[in-house]
Design goal:
8 strands; globular; 30% helix; alpha+beta
Length: 200
């Protein structure tokens, strides 16, 4: 990873009072007890179509997502007593010049979301992602949140728009998809002041 593209830096979720509740959902940090259900969701072809990785087995899932880095950047979405998806929240340092890097350190988050297809179309992803923005800006005090997706992932692009993120860039055949080959990608973001200015 070069100086111009800093790696996401995991940050513990201690500043947040867990669990967090929205109108219909409960959001909390992942635990190893959740792995079985989360693997079930990530093993669904409709889900893995747009994910960065497709676990080959439960053991493969545990090796990828049971690391300390993932445990401190993954949240679980519950509807009642059922886990219906998960969220990624990675605090990172955006590009900055060396002399001011301490001011940029840990000021931005990259987020992501996924929902079990059985629960798609009911606004759960939007509700959970919107709450994640609130956590980023109010609880963690971040200044900017970013998200990326394959351009053909229409469902994720809709969520980005609904929670107030703007498309900042589109790469032309800049992302390699395991089945589709080289495809377009989309980058979206929202600033804390933009988020605070919008009614919710």
């Amino acid at each position: 990873m070069s100086e111009t593209t800093p790696a996401p830096r995991p940050r513990p979720f201690e500043p947040v009072a867990w669990p967090v509740r929205t109108k219909r959902l409960l959001i909390r940090p992942v635990t190893p007890d959740d792995f079985g259900r989360l693997y079930e969701i990530r093993a669904i072809p409709e889900v893995t179509q747009w994910l960065t990785g497709r676990p080959a087995s439960y053991q493969d899932y545990v090796e990828r997502y049971g690391t300390p880095e993932r445990l401190t950047s993954t949240l679980v979405i519950e509807l009642g007593a059922t886990i219906i998806g998960d969220l990624f929240l990675g605090v990172e340092t955006p590009y900055s010049q060396v002399e001011v890097r301490d001011r940029a350190d840990g000021s931005q988050a990259a987020i992501g979301w996924l929902i079990d297809p059985a629960y798609v179309g009911q606004g759960y992803a939007t509700e959970a992602a919107a709450e994640m923005l609130r956590i980023c800006f109010e609880d963690l005090g971040l200044r900017r949140v970013v998200a990326g997706a394959f351009a053909d992932n229409a469902a994720s692009l809709r969520v980005m728009a609904k929670i107030g993120m703007r498309i900042e860039g589109r790469t032309v055949r800049g992302s390699l998809h395991r089945d589709l080959g080289w495809v377009d990608g989309v980058e979206a973001a929202v600033l804390a002041e933009e988020w605070r200015a919008k009614p919710r």
